[in-house]
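Exercise 7. Given the encoded structure of a 570-residue chain, write a plausible sequence.
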């Protein structure tokens, strides 16, 4: 996979205007205006600087405005320091005209033009709220609204922002009863993306002193949503809409796509995450030069052969050497044979085959994976950030890894300097993969590393009787599992399991607790961990929710499938 082609520095088609003093771009949705991760910057300014530098145009950019990550549209930057004062004065003095487009549901105001006049202030969780004008931190926000089109209860609005407050249009429209479609923060209707677009900016050019206007055309998603609403699974029958959704997901993964070199090199990550990327029932992972597409069975929206082929053709066109296919039944936990050819073909369904086993990098650590060996590949990519945490805190620790599968948590703990690890799993074959991984990395001789083929409940019972204590316990059970001794159902049994795990945590030690059961919400998960600590007779010093993985965005209005918490005991 040519990563510089799939994820170029900047797409030249997004440059709206360029002269000696100004450069204007149409920022794609999903690209931050400023870096969220300073160690892996993927913001529009960093990328545009690289693009200009590679073309010998210098790399100076003066930033005078920002757009939310998921808002698309016009951004103006200066190319010369000498142009900064004139441009900055216009933005600061409200001499710049800013016109936006927004799709909403529920706009009921009568009249061709309505003015929204509210006072805004920061709220909890990064939200902005409407407050009384006398409230602390209140700032006046003024937005003029014009209706450009209607269809049923949907409307396309033109917004002239007289002021420039954080989340101004999003908050004011939500307060007016018409949140922007796709706005998961402020309760917008379902949509493929946040349907807010900075269409035009008008200003005085710093060189000519004449008024100029720069425009970015309305995204096609806006017309589609106004005409038909959220496409949902219908997107797979619309080739153009499917192409746009895949392109948006690729753009959002730029930071990971370009992270194939250096000490944090990463060549395995999620490219498309179901409804979080407006492609319900479809997950796509990058493994080196290949993609693995997973189609989730849904009785209400069956995958037709035409839709499946359309998806696979377009994924191959992204630039991967080959595409593997996994078909996920609704009740995958009941499968006896996960290597069935009809569910997980051994060979790729598009392009070239990968070797039977390949190495991929995750934050600089190499893991062996098998792309054609059943439904699982040997590593769960949604745990990347948690493996980074384990590696960071494992130095000198004794680590217990329950439901270890191929022992990825044990591997990173050993790489982080753990003095010992114990990996417990009911599958001897999975543990052997973990042992081989440690041996290949030269980690077995660096500490006391044991592999125990046993049911986790049985192991924990024996460990408690022996008085074993671990500085860090990693607990990531499947949603359902069956061994000879018992059947585990996460929604019913997680608190019992967590209590048994907490019982073997050393004083002051930590439990990394995870669940990917979609029916366990974050609040219920926290309660289960609190109940577990009380059942074990242990005091909790801190229970910290861990953020969602950046490449596994939550579905609109929902939570991420993975819930993780770090429990520090007194």
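Solution.
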């Amino acid at each position: 996979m040519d990563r510089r082609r799939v994820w170029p520095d900047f797409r030249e088609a997004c440059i709206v205007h360029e002269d000696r003093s100004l450069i204007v771009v149409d920022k794609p949705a999903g690209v931050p205006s400023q870096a969220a991760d300073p160690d892996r910057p993927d913001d529009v300014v960093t990328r545009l600087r690289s693009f200009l530098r590679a073309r010998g145009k210098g790399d100076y950019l003066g930033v005078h405005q920002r757009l939310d990550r998921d808002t698309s549209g016009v951004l103006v930057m200066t190319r010369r320091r000498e142009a900064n004062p004139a441009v900055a004065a216009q933005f600061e003095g409200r001499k710049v005209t800013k016109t936006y487009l927004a799709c909403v549901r529920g706009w009921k105001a009568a009249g061709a033009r309505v003015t929204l006049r509210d006072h805004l202030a920061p709220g909890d969780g990064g939200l902005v709220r409407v407050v009384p004008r006398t409230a602390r931190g209140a700032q006046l926000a003024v937005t003029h609204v014009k209706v450009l089109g209607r269809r049923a209860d949907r409307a396309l609005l033109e917004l002239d922002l007289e002021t420039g407050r954080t989340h101004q249009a999003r908050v004011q429209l939500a307060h007016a009863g018409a949140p922007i479609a796709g706005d998961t923060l402020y309760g917008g209707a379902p949509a493929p993306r946040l349907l807010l677009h900075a269409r035009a900016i008008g200003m005085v050019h710093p060189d000519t002193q004449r008024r100029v206007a720069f425009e970015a055309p309305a995204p096609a998603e806006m017309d589609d949503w106004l005409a038909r609403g959220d496409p949902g699974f219908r997107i797979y029958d619309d080739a153009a809409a499917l192409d746009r959704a895949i392109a948006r997901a690729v753009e959002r993964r730029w930071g990971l796509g370009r992270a194939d070199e250096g000490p944090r090199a990463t060549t395995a990550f999620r490219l498309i995450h179901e409804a979080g990327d407006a492609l319900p029932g479809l997950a796509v992972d990058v493994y080196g030069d290949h993609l693995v597409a997973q189609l989730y069975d849904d009785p209400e929206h069956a995958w037709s052969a035409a839709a499946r082929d359309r998806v696979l053709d377009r994924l191959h066109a992204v630039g991967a050497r080959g595409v593997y296919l996994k078909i996920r039944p609704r009740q995958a936990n009941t499968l006896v044979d996960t290597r069935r050819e009809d569910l997980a073909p051994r060979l790729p369904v598009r392009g070239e085959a990968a070797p039977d086993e390949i190495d991929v990098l995750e934050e600089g650590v190499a893991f062996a994976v098998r792309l054609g060996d059943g439904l699982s590949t040997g590593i769960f990519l949604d745990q990347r950030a948690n493996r980074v945490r384990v590696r960071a805190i494992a130095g000198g620790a004794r680590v217990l890894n329950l439901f270890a599968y191929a022992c990825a948590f044990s591997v990173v703990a050993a790489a982080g300097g753990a003095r010992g690890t114990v990996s417990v799993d009911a599958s001897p074959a999975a543990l052997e993969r973990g042992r081989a991984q440690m041996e290949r990395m030269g980690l077995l001789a660096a500490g006391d590393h044991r592999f125990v083929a046993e049911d986790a409940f049985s192991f924990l019972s024996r460990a408690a009787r022996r008085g074993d204590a671990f500085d860090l316990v990693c607990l990531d059970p499947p949603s359902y599992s069956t061994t000879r001794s018992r059947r585990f159902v996460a929604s019913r049994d997680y608190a019992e399991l967590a209590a048994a795990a907490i019982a073997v945590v050393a004083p002051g030690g930590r439990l990394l607790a995870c669940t990917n059961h979609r029916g366990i919400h974050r609040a219920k998960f926290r309660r289960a961990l609190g109940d577990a600590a009380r059942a074990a007779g242990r005091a909790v010093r801190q229970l910290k929710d861990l953020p969602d993985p950046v490449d596994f965005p939550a579905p609109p209005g929902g939570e991420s499938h993975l819930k993780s918490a770090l429990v520090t005991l007194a």
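Remark. The chain has three domains: 3-228, 235-358, 380-569. Students should compare their own answers with the one above.
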